[in-house]
Structure prediction request, 662 residues.
Amino acid sequence: MHHLSIDLETYSSVPLAKAGAQKYIQSPDFEILLFAFSLDGAPVQIIDLARGERLPPWLVQAITSPEYIKHAYNAPFEWGCLSKYLGTLPPSQWRCTMFHGLYCGYTAGLDATGKALGLPQDKQKLNTGKALIRYFCIPCKPTKANGQRTRNLPQHDPAKWELFKEYCKQDVVTEMEIERRLSAFMPPDWVQKQWETDLIINARGVAVDLELVTGALYLGDTVRQTLTAEAVRLSGLSNPNSVAQLSAWLQEEIGEELADLRKDTVARLLGRDNNSAQVSRMLEIRQELGKTSTKKYDAIEAAVCEDGRVRGLLQFYGANRTGRWAGRLVQVQNLPRTYTEPLDLARELVKSRKLDALRLIYGSVPDTLSQLIRTAFVAPEGHVLIDADFSAIEARVISWLAGEQWRLEVFRTHGKIYEASASQMFGVPLELIKKGNPEYALRQKGKVAELALGYQGSTGALITMGALDMGLTEEELPDIVSRWREANKRIRDLWYSMDSAAVQVITEGGSVGVNGLLLAREYDYDNGTDCLTILLPSGRKLYYINPSIGQNEWGRPSISYMGMDQKTKRWKRIETYGGKLVENCVQAIARDCLAASIDRLEAAKLPVVFHVHDEVVIDVAPFADDDTMLSTVCSIMGEPVPWAPDLPLKAAGWVGYYFTKD
Prediction:
């Protein structure tokens, strides 16, 4: 078996970051400029396609041959580029070094991963790349100085072009060195197969109702202009959307200094009793303008391909602490819920751009448009969407992992975990916790406890989860925490067992088993790699790079590792603890359940077009009545996984013509 490492530099007038790789590649003016490669670790060579050089026949054959494994950083891009010219290439012949790095606990960027691994300077990515990509890979602004051209070609700056070729070659060097450094920690073959399936799902894409999208953009812009004009008349401000201008105006009107105009601040100010009519209306307009963002619709419009489908919505292993997918482009992971009824009428009014009718029937136009974003994803003509979502998957997994039998019995029978939790916490018979009985008020406490406390959360977690908004008082919260932990002793013990095992493994080495998980300290002495790993029941591992034990503010051992800070996007030391490690494992196991279901659905000729957290969306021609189709999909999702046959899984969903969630 040969190994061919590849890096391409390309040109397209379509903006890659906004439109995604598939639309970028489909552009009529797309072309591959440079093709750098190394065969079996030999010195990197480069083919200057932009200047007329051509791939040698052996290389063309190698790209399609199963005898050559193709490696690239962010391989879906190279795979997509070459598939445009050579037909859809078999995903099984490709390996993605970026995915390999994510699997091993590193970040997504080639430069950042190289630095995190401590690559020597001659193996690191060149820092000249961004400017060269801007010069050669995207259109340029026509000016008098550049002869009104819209694109820079090699002959316009030969010196820069030669530097660009060196940059392209160096990317192959860096990619190969990262792959070599990580070679002791390989993803299991079945996870590689999941990457290949993900490649197909992302290339398949999902259909979009463009008429709805353009209608929503038109109405959103109309409402925004109308509200802004009214705000200008009321306040005399030149730009009432400016936080600085509006803050100064409000401070003068109400006599109160304002630190910000965030959503909660505006809501608080609206609740004042002594506001003038002008102030109240300006605050209402501020609220409405905050809802008029059409960024999601903009993102859909920017990414939709010529055939009316959006592709590349998912990033495999994008949430690398657990291995879950991350959203890209439209960010389907955080779309607003859909409460608007009737939905069909609302969609038709938006498509026909009937603003007054939409406002008359549904009230706030911005809020209605926000709720309709999901419904922009549709089944093409003659097809339906089948949506199926795991029911309470994290609650089921943590119950199974901890061995909390009363909870498992709930999930094997009636499934009412909020009521059952309240029953356990307050010693009230389950049958009394139902609507119409005074005991039903306990369900709210059971619900917020279930949502907030599973991963060692305390009163702060309850508040974050909205306990105070539910009518609970701060004085009640410690009792809820205490009762939930007492009712779930095995889950509580799991947190502390994980913490203790991690501390032991990091300080003493070796391995420690906890409830079917195996924590170990692993080294690759040749490359200086040191990590804490957690072997999951599925056989997949979670990686924590350069683990260390310090001391927390309470004088107890503090676990930390090197990782990507999700807020600052910097590679830094991150603290963790038993409950957080349990959360990582539970979400990772839930992810493996979803991945197993996707494999089974694909094998059953039920093509997944995208998925969100623990939910799949299938685009298929109807093969039975709605109930039968949904039952077929939910049955597949509910099948036991081989490595956890006693984990009770259940799915529910719907069949329809557009995506929704209530």
In short: The two ends are 51 Å apart (CA to CA). Residues 204-378 form one domain.
